[in-house]
Amino acid sequence: MAHDRTVFYLSDRTGITAETLGGSLLTQFDGVEFRQISVPFIQNEDKARRAVDMINRAALEDGVRPILFCTLVDDRIISLLQESKGYLLDLLGTFIDPLEMELGQESTHSAGRAHGIANQRAYQARIEAMHFSLENDDGNSPHNYRQADIILVGVSRCGKTPTCLYLALQFGLLAANYPLIEEDLRAMVLPERLEPHRKKLYGLSIDPERLVQIRSERRPNSPYSSVKQCAWEIHEAQRLFEVESIPWINSTFKSIEEIASTIVDQTGVPRRFF
Predict the structure, then answer these.
(1) For the chain, domain boundaries
(2) Is the pTM of this model over 0.85?
(3) pLDDT class of 175 with cuts at 50, 70, 90
(4) Above pLDDT 90, what percent of the chain?
(5) CA end-to-end span of the chain, whole Å?
(6) What's the rounded Cα separation, in Å, for the pair 165 and 158?
(7) 196 pLDDT exceeds 90?
(8) What is the 3-state secondary structure (H, E, C) of 145-164?
(9) Any idea which architecture 5-103 has in CATH?
(10) Which CATH architecture group holds 120-267?
(11) Fewer CB atoms < 10 Å away: N or C end of the chain?
């Protein structure tokens, strides 16, 4: 595949931080095609030299130096990578030095703090939140709603499950979801099992055209995925949200990250930091 520049994400652990920060920066440059390569677990000089070989090959093939997003903390390994034919951006070092000055103490320079299990209690809380979302998906176990931090409501296939899982994984929230079925929409009142948890409810909607596409992948040429059915369900669900004063968002043109952050911001539910 043709590309303009090669980008390497270099890390001593999973590479998630480098990919997230570097990827966010790349989105600011329209019209540039990036070939992205992640090289995690660079924990010794041998692996660093192999990474340098990959970088130099890319520089030779592209005729321009690759961009290197680096989140390593070992100065020896960083020095080796700086000898490559790439343009290195030290995503941690850029901020560690001024932070050390401001806080009046040296950093630990420990590898993998962002995505390791440095805090066992916090890690366990995140796993438990994931289990909760899976166990309370699609209206299962409504008796657990009392424990939930947030309950997403919407028609089938509008994005409730992935949003719940992201809320659990990223924010540590106990997120459940409830699918609005035709009976609920015709009644135009909040389902009885949701009424006691009204303050935890948040609605998800989606454009009918997009819902048709998603449902057609699952059940093509069926009433479930028809334009008429999807349009009716979306219209009635949004009307129910308005009647019952449930805040809601249209997820069609928003990423999971943006949807989840909007929900947390608008509901004020306290998130957990890991």
Answers:
(1) 5-103, 120-267
(2) no
(3) very high
(4) 81
(5) 38
(6) 14
(7) yes
(8) HHHCCEEEEECCCCCHHHHH
(9) 3-Layer(aba) Sandwich (3.40)
(10) 3-Layer(aba) Sandwich (3.40)
(11) N
